[in-house]
Every structure is written in C-alpha cells, then in structure tokens.
Amino acid sequence: MESTDEHAMESDTDLISVLPGEVLQHILSFSRIRAIVRMRRLSRRWMRVIECLQFICLDYRDFKHWKVEKFARFVDNLLLIRSKVDLHTFQLYWFHYLPLNCNDLRKWILYAVKHNVKVLDVELDMYDKTALPSRIFTCRSVEELSLQMGEAPDEDLEHVGLVLPDIIQLPSLKKLTLSDVEVDQLSLNQFIGRSPNLEDLHLINSATYLDLIASKVLKRLTLDGFMHGPKRFTISAPHLVHFECQGCALQDVSWGEKPSLESAHIDTWGKKYDGESEFIGVLLSAKTLALFGSDVKVMLEKELPACPVFERLTTLEIGNWCLTEDFYAVLRFLQLSPRLGELTLMQEELPHAARKGAETDAMPIDGMTFQCPFLETVIIQCSKGDDGINKLVNVLAANGINPKKIQVNFYEDIEEMERAENRRIIEEREKELCNFEKMAKKNPEWVDESRYADSNPETDSDEYDDDYDDF
Predict the structure, then answer these.
(1) N or C: which end of the chain has fewer CB within 10 A?
(2) Would the pLDDT of 359 be above 60?
(3) Exposure of 246 by Cβ count < 10 A (0-12 exposed, 13-18 middle, 19+ buried)?
(4) Could you list the residue range(s) of the whole structural domain that residue 327 is in?
(5) Is residue 296 assigned to a domain?
(6) Distance of CA 441 to CAs 434, 435, 470, Å?
(7) How far apart are CA 246 and CA 251, in angstroms?
(8) Between these two residues, 78 and 438, which has the higher pLDDT value?
C-alpha cells in the first residue's frame, strides 16, 4: 500500500499551497523576507498570501551588501504591495555602520501602527534619539513592544537615551522591553498604570532615578543596568515570579509587597549589604536561583543562619567571589536545599576577589555538613592555574558527593567555545545567504526583489506618504 507522501509525490500535489492561509503565514514568519518577496511569482494564490503578509521581519544581515538607500526603497515597496490588512509582527534589526534615515524609520513604524500591529520590535545601532513617532506609545493594538536603541550618534549631545513622549497609553500591552531609553518615574507609572495587562517588564540600561516599581499584575521583571543612578528603590509586585537584577548594589533594592519568586538571577556589584528588608524571604519558594557578587555573599551570610528551608529549590548557580577562601554561604545554602539537583559554583581568583573586597571576613566552616541526596550535577567554573579548586572538590566529596559527578570547566575554555559557536553561526548564515544569492541568479523566472528597490515610492503613490504623518 502506497504511503500518503509517495502518492503526493507521484501526483505532483503541492501540499504547501493547499494549507490554510493562517498556517502559511505562520510558516512564512520563519523565512527570509527576500525569499518571501520572490514567492509572489509562484501562483496567484501565493501572490495573495504575500500581499497579506502578517509577519515582516527585516534583518540587516540579509541585506549586508546593499546600500542604505536601496534597502529603504525595498521596504517602501514591500509595504506598498501589501493589501490593507492588519499586521501581526513588524521587526527591524539594523546594525549597519551607516544609520537609517529617520524619516524612513518613522514612516515604516507608523505604517505598522496604522495597521494594528501586535508585536513591534525595533533594534537599532545608531539613530536620532528624538526620531521615533509618539504614536507608538498610544497604539491600542500592540501587545509586545521592544525598543532597543543602542548609542546615539556623536553629534547627539542632548540625549543619552530615547526620549519618551508625555503621553503613554498602551491598553493591550503585555510585554515591554526597553534598552537605552530614558525611563523616569512618571513614564514608568504611565506604562504600568495604563497597561492593565502588562506582565513582562524589561529595562536594560534605561532606568532613571526610579523610586518605586509597583504593579499588581507584573510577573517578570528585569533591571539590567541604569542610565542614571541608581538610588534606592522599592519593588512592590506581589505576583512577580521571575526577577533579574544587574548593574546596581543589592542594598539599593528593597521590597514592598513581597512576591514568592519561582526564579531569580541577581548579579550585583556592591561591596556591602545593609538592606533594611530581608531579601532572602522573596527567594524561599524559588526553583531556580543564580546569585553572584560580593554583596550577595554578604547578604547570604547575614540572612542564611536563621533562614527556613528552600523546599522547592532544584537548580542553584552561585559565586563570583573567592569560594576557596569563603565557602560558608555555599555550604549553608546546601544545608537548606534538600531537593537540589544541579549546582554550579563560579570561582573568582583571589587577587580579583580582593580588589572587589567584601566587607566581611571569611566565616568558619569547621564542622559544617550537608545532605543533598538528589544532587546529580556539580559544575565548578574557574580560571586555569587556580590551585584552590581541589579544596572545593574535597569539601563536596567529604559530604557524599561522588567526584565523578563534579565537572571543572575553565573560563578560558568556555570563552573559546563561545567564540567558536559565534563563528559557526556567522559562517552558517553567510553560507545560507550565499546559496540564496546563487539560486536567485540561476532562477531568472523568480521575481527579483531588487526591482522593488529600484522604484521611487514618492512617485508611486501620494497616499503612501499622507498615511504616515505623525500627529
């Protein structure tokens, strides 16, 4: 009996084209935009599908040999051929050494806003900090907004980050990511207060002297670097389940309505900890924790002695201080984590740890023991030539951890593996792009997308420019 696949091959049935339109749109969301444009020539059905394209993803790496002007004309004409239907996703990633024209950028984003975009994702390397249209921040349809703005050009001396408008109202917003955007207390209050469904908030090098982050619905919060400050601020988010914090001192963070976090990643740079509220209380229900920094060590030494058991904790990453000289916090954590299954210890070399300088002396560990019957994986990360690592291994082995389960990874090898993986990804993408270019030359029956990039949109339609005025 013939299989369905064999029957389809013999009858030359196009199984892709017969799929429902929404399925085709989902498939196209994973394809290169230049290849998508060429598909218009396949059939009338495909022409209609492409002209109703729901996902527009523009990545500079697919246009790396093009001039900026040619890329701009391509995008203009791509938008011109679209039917007047709603747009689900508009993504633009631009890291060319030449910045995009601000007027083009405004025009494309306003097109997305006008067509009720749900996911707006813009990541730029250089741009005019005042160039983005204010209508982005009053779009009623957008559910996910990501603006990662990079550095301002050298001549832009007035602003460090993107300047937000006075009015912010995004009633459908669920996820917000801002990088290099000037977010002060007033603008943050508008984002939270006028976006009743905002559950994900990620501020990367954006927070500007915040006093309070308060939300009854927020579930995930990232604070990665501060544009100005930081000074002490309070988080009052009782339903928070995930928290990431980097680039500040731990003592600057205090809690109002405390959540029961399921996971946290904290990597701070302070030298001491004199926080007024008990920090460890928000971590007690966590399943996954990553805790790094000298002030984290000080906080743990202060609060762990009287701490209850971490009943749910299964994965722990901890360190970035000299563990071989001060292992108390780790041992105490292990005593309080009966269900722990994965442990990663990150060691700093003693000279570097001394330069950072924690404000407490090493606490004694004589007589301290622990039992972690579910611990299956222990990874120790350190620099090559660190002679103190054997001390960590011996302490773990003395408490019943099989040395075969302990793996030592060197930072130098990790960095080399990461560089090799990045090279592989770049080479693979370059190869794919090269194959695409060769295929395009061998198939002249395909529509050449450069045709769209050669026309002048200003002469094609007066309506196009009228639609994108910034009000």
Answers:
(1) N
(2) no
(3) middle
(4) 271-447
(5) yes
(6) 11, 10, 40
(7) 12
(8) 78
